Each structure stands twice: as C-alpha cells, then as structure tokens.
Amino acid sequence: xxxxxxxxxxxxxxxxxxxxxxxxxxxxxxxEAKPVLQLLEELGAELVAILxxxxxxxxxxxxxxxxESFPDARVYGGVEDKGRIPEQKxxxxxxDHVEFAGRVGKVIFTPGHTRAQIAYYFPPESPEETGELxxxxxxxxxxxxxxLEGTAAQMVESLGKLRDLPDNTRVWCxxxxxxxxxxxxxxxxxxxxxxxxxxxxxxxARRHQEATIPSQLGIEKRTNPFLRWEDSALQTAANSKDPVxxxxxxxxxxxxx
Length: 257
Ligand code: ZN
Ligand code: FE
Known about the structure:
Elements: E1 2-8, E2 12-19, E3 24-28, H1 34-43, E4 46-51, H2 57-60, H3 63-69, E5 74-78, E6 90-92, E7 97-100, E8 103-109, E9 118-122, E10 132-136, E11 139-140, E12 143-144, H4 152-163, E13 170-173, H5 178-188, H6 193-207, E14 215-216, H7 217-223, H8 232-238, H9 243-255
Parallel strand pairs: 3-4, 4-5, 5-6, 10-13
Antiparallel strand pairs: 1-2, 2-3, 7-8, 8-9, 9-10, 11-12, 13-14
This protein binds zinc ion and fe (iii) ion.
Residues 56, 58-59, 137, 174-175 line the site of fe (iii) ion.
C-alpha cells in the first residue's frame, strides 16, 4: 500500500492509498475531487473506496464527484455521521474493519472534534511496514482538533486510544497546522528539549513550503501537549493534577492563542 499526500483547499491534506498490483486506490477525506481524479488517472488506478473521518465539508467535499466518476466506490464513515456524509453507504463503529491492498484498517471511534469522528489505523503486517494512522481532525501534528461537538473528557479518551498505538506509527492528519500548533506547544512547555528541536525542524521545513505530514506517533507523545496531560510541567501550567482538566485548560488556551 503506497500513500500519496495531496494538498487541498487552503491547508487540508487528502491521502490516496494505492495498490500497484491490483491497480486500485482508496482516498481518505477527499476535500476536493479534481486533484484526486487527476492522480488516479496518472496512476491508472480505479477508485474502490472513500474513507471519511467526519462530515465536515473540508473532508467530504469531493465525495459526490468521485462517486460520479467511480460509481462502484464504497463510501465509508462513522455510524453516528449517518445523514451528514454525502453518498455514505457504510456505517462504521469501533472495532469494525476496512480492507485495502491486503491491509486491514481498524476503525477507532474518536469523538470530540465532532460527536461522530472515527480514525483508521492500518497496523503493520510485516517488520518492514509501519502502522499508518489516519487521524482526521482528532490528532494533528503538534496539536488536536477543536471541541466542536464533544467534551474534553471524550477527547482525552479518544486521543488516549491513539496514543496507545506503537511509537513508529505514521500519523496522517487532516491539516497542515503543525507550525502554529508547535508555537502554542512551546508557550506552555518551553523547557521540553524534544519540542524545541522539533519546532526548529518544522520552522525550517515550512520556510521551504515542505509538508510536515506524516508525523510519527512517538514524536507526538514527546512533544504534543494534547497527548501529555500527565506531564508535570503541563499540569503545573494548568494548575491541576487531573488529566481531563489539564487537557481542557490547554484546549481553551489554544482556542484563544
Ligand atoms: Zn473538521
Ligand atoms: Fe478539517
């Protein structure tokens, strides 16, 4: 399974999964159809699946047009998103699986940003492979999604599930927000040397308009404040020993940052 990252709209990413043997493809969160159709043509691949993480327009905006070109493509999303994702026919919940290119994608229910959000995790099937996590707007590189339909407690539980995955898991998230996220992270966790190093690298990459995605989960665990609700520096900043309160405080600060 090869993964191709496509920029969309102002700061979204869409991901085309390609199976060169079968000449098939799947797409995660197609914000727009056009760049996806163009890439499929270059690859000579048939689109067999659309994997949506949640109903927001910048993640499903290309569904209809893609279905027009590939009427047999199956459109997946969370069961709680029923009625909100165009063309959705497959309703997924925690523990369900999707299959592509001989890989099995596990569905992880991750409410918080929306009440229905899901993530797709493809575990490695051999030592040469890495796990691939498509986290939508739940986990970002250096940050997390806003709480639009969910609570801090839900988000902590959702992010906790993602945090349990192996360190070498690659994280493919919905937006290029990394630099801004790390600016905020440094403001609350300034003594974290892993974070300082990462910030310098990301700043450099963005100066050259390079993408910062995929990220790696191990780096997120060390530098992303929204996975570090047990960290004493962050608990001190939030003036709390409680994970949910610490998370909620940081999320509130980030909203105003
Ligand atoms: Zn969203
Ligand atoms: Fe989004």
